[in-house]
User: Which sequence fits this backbone?
């Protein structure tokens, strides 16, 4: 057992990432964005002196990284390990030996949980989808376990029992810095603009990696709307689904039952960057989630002014909300977007950005909560 040795008002914090390539895209998953947004939020805390990103893999840090290294300093574990009061394990895991080293220096270790890990583990076990094989390591020496609110319902006990610390809900944070940077060179900076007197291009961009965010319900919503007003729809575009259309007989069989598919008004595409696909190909986004009711994707879409039809009950004031898993109700929300959005698109952008502001780094509530969480961690003896 070690006692506190650092100044709780002058904290040096590291947030882990797990680079796989030196020029890895920010758009292949939300984990790296999550790490950067968290560092921005922590910078506003009065108890924090500095925050850096700490890479937990052997990939070298270089100027190829898709973020500003002056704004978000990024170090290897070896370069950071002697200058940290708190290490937040978010996008990369440290080993038992690395844990022992930082603990010997009085550094606190926090597990930041931001995935529906219980669902991923369940699917891996039941359906033979490899995750960790026999090499599973779950650190038993966390000083705290933090968890974003949208994963609490399904994964809180999973985190708490396996990590041997009660997982507590912490604020969800998002920042428009990356969507705006990627969109700067696009037409109208990637923001929504009406296309009068033309059918709507519907986009479904669920990742289709697991049951949590899957394209089938958004496709059913588009189908229900198409049956009611076929002339209002130019095309349904389902991204991240090309491999399903080629490799899943069950997926193809289901899709062929739909009028919008039979009448050649639907396409199943590969992977695209969100900002580019919104700007070049999208009039309305349809989304559906199952027990993950906050998502960076929703904020990307709404910040840029695109109508978002969704069922995320933690942000029902965003976009065009429908409740639960009712495709017919979702279709009504979609038709409402058809009828109303272009008459108020400028006001919509401002309203969406005002709503999203409660999640931005520097928001007083977020700053206060994170500052209190840091103080709580530093007040405890090291495990």
Assistant:
């Amino acid at each position: 057992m070690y006692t506190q040795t650092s100044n709780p008002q002058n904290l040096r914090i590291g947030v882990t990432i797990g680079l796989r390539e030196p020029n890895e895209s920010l758009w292949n998953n939300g984990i790296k964005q999550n790490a950067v947004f968290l560092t921005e939020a922590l910078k506003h805390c009065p108890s924090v002196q500095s925050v850096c990103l700490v890479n937990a893999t052997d990939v070298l840090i270089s100027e190829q990284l898709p973020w500003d290294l002056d704004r978000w300093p990024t170090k290897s574990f070896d370069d950071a390990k002697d200058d940290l009061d708190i290490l937040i394990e978010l996008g990369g895991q440290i080993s038992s030996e690395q844990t022992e080293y930082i603990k010997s220096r009085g550094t606190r270790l926090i597990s930041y949980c931001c995935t529906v890990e219980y669902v991923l583990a369940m699917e891996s076990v039941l359906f033979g989808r490899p995750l960790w094989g026999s090499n599973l390591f779950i650190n038993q020496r966390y000083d705290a376990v933090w968890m974003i609110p949208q994963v609490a319902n399904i994964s809180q006990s999973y985190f708490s029992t396996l990590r041997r610390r009660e997982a507590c809900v912490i604020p969800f944070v998002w920042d428009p810095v990356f969507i705006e940077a990627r969109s700067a060179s696009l037409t109208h900076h990637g923001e929504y603009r009406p296309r009068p007197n033309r059918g709507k291009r519907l986009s479904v961009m669920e990742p289709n990696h697991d049951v949590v965010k899957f394209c089938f319900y958004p496709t059913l919503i588009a189908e229900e709307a198409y049956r009611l007003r076929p002339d209002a729809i130019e095309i349904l575009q389902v991204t991240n689904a090309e491999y399903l259309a080629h490799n899943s007989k069950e997926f193809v069989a289901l899709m062929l039952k739909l009028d919008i598919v039979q009448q050649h008004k639907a396409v199943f595409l590969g992977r695209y960057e969100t900002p580019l696909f919104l700007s070049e190909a999208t009039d309305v986004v349809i989304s559906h989630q199952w027990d993950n009711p906050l998502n960076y994707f929703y904020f990307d879409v709404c910040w840029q002014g695109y109508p978002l039809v969704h069922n995320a009950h933690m942000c029902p004031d965003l976009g065009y909300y429908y409740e639960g898993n009712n495709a017919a109700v979702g279709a009504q929300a979609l038709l409402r977007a058809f009828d109303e959005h272009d008459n108020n698109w400028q006001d919509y952008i401002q309203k969406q950005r005002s709503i999203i502001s409660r999640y931005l780094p520097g928001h007083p509530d977020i700053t206060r909560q994170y500052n209190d969480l840091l103080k709580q961690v530093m007040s405890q003896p090291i495990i």
Q: What stands out?
A: The two ends are 6 Å apart (CA to CA). The first helix runs from residue 31 to 43. DSSP finds 15 helices and 13 strands in the chain. Residues 1-5 have pLDDT under 50 and may be disordered.
